[in-house]
């Protein structure tokens, strides 16, 4: 990372601070709503991604990569989830040192109870506050920041400029 001393312009600083406020506001709202059904955002992410996997299982490493977490952080979190009966650990057949996280029936039930709350929360705190043009802009920004295959330099087909 270059530290060439180039400070943010006032417009850039306002945009950066607006982005931070958006992140805090949306995450605070969704975290509050999930807490009402007994889950944290990381709990929900672990449960939902496991539910999408064959046999509702994923290696600790794969799960950590999906969440952008270190293995040790996820392992500590999984221990807390395991004590609540939401997940179990199994030996990883392809790596004797690793483990596989497995969604339990109780974890699946918790996810099924929480999913409608989560969707309503995402709508309330984010989706329903934006126009279709705003949502398309968020997708364009994501493509630009993450360099996906679609051309991130301009509007996509069917989207507003």
Automatic annotation (TrEMBL):
Pfam families: MarR. It comes from the Bacteria. One of its GO terms (molecular function) is DNA-binding transcription factor activity. Residues 53-91 are annotated as: Disordered. Residues 79-91 have a biased composition (Basic and acidic residues). InterPro entries: HTH_MarR-typ (IPR000835), MarR/SlyA-like (IPR039422), WH-like_DNA-bd_sf (IPR036388), WH_DNA-bd_sf (IPR036390). Residues 12-147 form the HTH marR-type domain. GO terms for biological process: response to stress. PANTHER family: MARR FAMILY REGULATORY PROTEIN (PTHR33164:SF99), TRANSCRIPTIONAL REGULATOR, MARR FAMILY (PTHR33164). This is MarR family transcriptional regulator. It comes from Virgisporangium aliadipatigenens.
């Amino acid at each position: 990372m270059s530290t060439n001393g180039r400070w943010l312009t006032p417009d850039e600083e306002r945009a950066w601070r607006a982005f931070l406020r958006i992140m805090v506001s949306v995450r605070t709202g969704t975290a509050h709503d999930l807490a009402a059904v007994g889950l944290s955002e990381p709990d929900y992410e672990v449960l939902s991604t496991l539910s999408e996997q064959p046999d509702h299982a994923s290696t600790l490493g794969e799960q950590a990569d999906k969440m952008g977490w270190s293995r040790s952080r996820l392992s500590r979190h999984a221990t807390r989830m395991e004590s609540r009966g939401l997940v179990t650990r199994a030996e990883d057949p392809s790596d004797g040192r690793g483990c596989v996280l497995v969604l339990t029936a109780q974890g699946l039930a918790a996810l099924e109870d929480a999913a409608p709350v989560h969707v309503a929360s995402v709508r309330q705190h984010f989706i329903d506050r934006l126009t279709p043009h705003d949502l398309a802009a968020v997708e364009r920004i994501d493509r630009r920041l993450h360099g996906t295959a679609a051309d991130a330099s301009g509007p996509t087909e069917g989207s507003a400029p």
